[in-house]
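Good morning C.,

I know you're traveling, so I'll keep this short. The sequence:
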Amino acid sequence: MDDNDDSGGLTEGLQMDLFHPESERDPGDTNVQKWGFDVHPVVFPVTLLLVAVFVAATVLLGEQAATVYSDVRSFFEGNFSWFYLLSVNFFIAVLLFFAFSKYGKIRIGGVEAEKEFSDFSWMAMLFSAGMGIGLMFYSVSEPMVYYSDVPGFFDAEAGTGMAGVAALTQTFFHWGIHPWGIYGLVGLSLAFFSFNRGLPLTFRSIFWPLLGDRIYGWPGHLIDLVTVFATLFGLATSLGLGVKQINTGLSYILGDILGVVSVPTGTVPQILLIAIITTIATASVAAGLEGGVKRLSTLNVYLMFALFGFVVLVGPTVFIFGAWVQGLGSYFTNLPSLAFFTGTLSDGSSTVNDWTVFYWAWWIAWSPFVGTFIARISRGRTIKEFVVGVLVIPSLFSTVWLAAFGGSALFNSLQGNGAVLTAHEQAGQTVAMFALLDQFPFGAVFGLLAILVVAMFFVTSSDSGSLVIDHLTSGGKHDVPKTQRIFWAITEGVVAALLLYSGGLNALQTAAIATGFPFSLVLIVMCYTMYLGLQTEYELLQSEEFADRVQDITDEDVAIDRSRSEVVTDIRETSESADD
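The C-alpha cells, ready to paste straight into the viewer:
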C-alpha cells in the first residue's frame, strides 16, 4: 500500500476534498533533496548541531554535567511529583472518553482507509517499540526491590507473602495502563492529524487547530526539534541500558554458569556490542517497515513467547498463575488510590519519587517516539479499536509477563533457596533475570535466548526510532530514502556508544526525565486540540455535503457501513466486503 495514499480510492479523494484543511502546504514541500537525502531545511541541520553540541558537552564536562542533570531531576521530583501523577491520570481519562464516546466510531485515515497490517503484526510492532527492553530489564529486578523494601502505600512486612503481593501490585501499576495511556494518546493524536487531515506525521501537526499554517513556521520547527532531541537521546539511553544487560548476561552465563569462556564486562565490550547490533539494526531499517521492522518485531514476539512458555511450564506454574490473579486483583482494587498516591501524608514519598515519578516522566518524554511509531502503523482502525488495542491488550500481557518472571523470583525467595534475591543484591539489576533462569533446567540455554530477545529488542527499538526521526526530520513525509534511514540508525548507535564511553548514560537519563515536565504541559494542550479535531470530523461526517457524496457512492458498487448510527464509519467495494 502506498503510504501517501489517504483513501481507498473509491471516491477519488473524498477524505482530501472534505476533511483536509485548506492549506497550500504539503508534507515536506520545502525539503532539500540531495546526496540521497530528503530532509527538512531547518529541523534536520539544527538537530545535527544540537546533537553534536550536547554529546560534546556531556563527554567533555563529565561529572559536572552529571551533577547538573541530577540536580534538575531532584528539582522536578521534589516539587512536581503531584503534577506528574495528576496529568497521567488525566491523559487516561481523556483517551477513554475519545474511545467510548461518539468519537469512537471515527476511523483513522477516513471512512475508506484500510488496515495496513494484520492485528498480530500491529500488536507485535507496537509492543516491541513501547516496552521491549524495559520489561526484560525490570521484570525480575523491580519485584525484588519491593519485596525487600516494601513501598509506603502498602502495609506489609518485608520478606513476607504480603510483601510479594505488594511487589507485584506496584510493578503492575508501573507497567500497566498508565504508560500505554500516554503512548496511546500521543499515537492517536498523531495518527488522526496525519491520516485524517493530511498533515505531516510530526508532532507539530497536532497543534493545527490552534496554530493553523504556522505549524510550518518556527513554532512548528521548535516543536519538532524538541521532539527529535528527546527521541534520540532517550533512545540512546535505553539502548545503553539494554547493551549492559546483554554484556552482563553473556558474562554470567558463559563464564559463571557454563565456564566456557570469560566474557569481560565494561565499556569497551559494550561499545563493541553496540557496533554489532547497530549493524544489524541498520540492515533491518534499510529494508523498510514492511520488510525489516515488521518481520523482526513479529519474530521477537515469538521468541518472547518461547521464553515466557519455558518459565511458565518449567517454573512454579501454579504459583505463577495464582500470583497473577492475586496481583491483578490487588492492582485493580488499589488502582484508584495508588494512581493518586503521592506519599505526602505518609512515609511513602521515596517510592513515588524514585520509581513512579521516574517512570511517568520517562514515559512522557518517550511518548513522541513511541506515539509516532504507533501512529505510523495504525491507519484503518477506528478510534475505539485503536484505544482498546493499545491500552488494554499490551497492559494485560505485561502483567502476565511480570507475574511469570517476577512471580517466579518471589517463589524462589519465599519457598526456594533465595538465590535470585541474593544475586540481585550482590550483582545488581542486570543479573537478576539470568539468576532466575539459572534456577531451572536448561537455564543456560534459555538465558542465551533471553540475551537474544534483549538484542532483538535493541534492534527493533533502533529501527523504530530511526523511522520516527526520519519522519520528524523530513517534514513529516511517510516515505524517506534508504540512505536517510541508514544514516539515523548509525547515528543512534554512535550517540549511544559515545555516551557510554563518557559515562554519560546515567546523567543523560536524568536529563530525559526532566523533559517529561514540559512535555506533560504540551500533552495537556494536545488533549484540547485533539478534541477540536474530532469534533470537526464528527460534524463533517454528519454534514449535508458528506451525505450527498455518500448518496453518490451508493449508486456505485460499494458497501456503506453506518455501524448502527447515522454516521458513516466505513466504505468498501462490494467485492471486498464479500471477501471479508
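Safe travels,
E.
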